[in-house]
Amino acid sequence: MFDQTIRPRRLRASDNLRRLVRETRISPESLIWPVFVIEGEGVYEEIPSLPGQYHYSPDQLGRMVERAHAHGVSRVILFGLPAHKDERGSSAWDENGVVQQGIRKIKALAPEMYIVTDVCMCEYTSHGHCGILCGHDVDNDKTLEVLAKTAVSHVRAGADMVAPSDMMDGRVAAIRRALDENGFIHVPIMSYAAKYASSFYGPFREAAGSAPAFGDRRSYQMDPHNGREAMRECALDAAEGADILMIKPAMPYLDLMYRCRQRFDLPVAAYQVSGEYAMIKAAAKADLIDEYGVMCESAVCIYRAGADILITYYAPELADAIRKGDIG
């Protein structure tokens, strides 16, 4: 007779029981939706490289707010497309810059919406690099000054959180100091702590008009070969005062998300980047995959690896899936 005490068992259960015993839980409140704000008026245009995502001029952000409310999304991260670019990216910290306008408009329409802002120079500089140049090289220390000014200007406009994505050394400390000196001690920093020089960013660079005019960003973004370096970057940002550590991209770097979760007692964010989203969309359009199923499974895997927060273009659809019980 088979010994029942050592028999391995796999749970065979109804849908209700499977949902009850799920190890990985996801909430709509942990989703952040990327939003592109473009300077001008009357602009509401679908982004060709990111089907289902739009460029909104500030006066059209009501459309975004309505869509967010309809799906139960309450957190967004803003990226700006200015009309004017120069060598220093001076429109980034202009009090009437495109992101600053967008923040004020959203807060006027939906005061409860939680606004995170991306803090970087690539969308504002004429050369498309993430900092101030000295020749063809980014000057780290000069860049810290403008990043800090940009973060402060976003918070003055009403941002709830800032997220530096430039990968300059010391930028978390510089931004924390500037925020504190201006009385914004309560505003958290979500650091793009391990941001890789990835080929998955292509659709975003088209959407944000931020491709570098020459060279690449490998001198300040991370080499995909390196994992231990990512943990050093996370440790440095944590020591400088980061409140949340982000791994970017998400799916190709799940191993680092897991390692970050195990090592640091801070919330971990993942960015499911434009290339990840666009590949799912393209494969679904070609009838190669079930888009809904892949969307849900991808999100679950990211959370299972250790993410507490997910930045994703699928935020509205994922919020619906969570409410339906398909994930979450």
Ordered list of secondary-structure elements with their pairings:
Blueprint: H1 15-20, E1 31-38, E2 44-47, E3 50-56, H2 61-71, E4 75-81, H3 98-109, E5 114-119, E6 133-134, E7 137-138, H4 140-157, E8 161-164, H5 171-181, E9 190-195, H6 202-208, H7 228-240, E10 244-248, H8 254-263, E11 268-272, H9 274-285, H10 291-304, E12 309-312, H11 315-324
Parallel strand pairs: 1-3, 1-4, 1-12, 4-5, 5-8, 9-10, 10-11, 11-12
Antiparallel strand pairs: 2-3, 6-7
Helix pairs in contact: 2-11, 4-5
* Percent range of helical residues: 25-40%
- The tally of strands reads 12
Largest sheet: 10 strands, mixed
Classify the secondary structure makeup into a structural class.
Answer: alpha/beta
Query: What is the end-to-end distance?
Result: 41 Å
Which regions have little confidence, pLDDT < 50, spanning 5+ residues? Answer: none
Fraction in beta strands: 15-25%
Named CATH architecture: Alpha-Beta Barrel
* CATH topology value: TIM Barrel
Quickly count the domains.
1
Coarse shape? globular
Counting H and I runs of at least 4 residues, what is the number of helices?
11
What is the C-alpha radius of gyration, as a whole number of Å?
A: 20 Å
H/E topology pattern: HEEEHEHEEEHEHEHHEHEHHEH
Mean pLDDT: 91
CATH superfamily: Aldolase class I
CATH class category name = Alpha Beta
Cofactor: Zn(2+)
EC number: 4.2.1.24
Binding site for 5-aminolevulinate 2: 274, 313
Function: Catalyzes an early step in the biosynthesis of tetrapyrroles. Binds two molecules of 5-aminolevulinate per subunit, each at a distinct site, and catalyzes their condensation to form porphobilinogen.
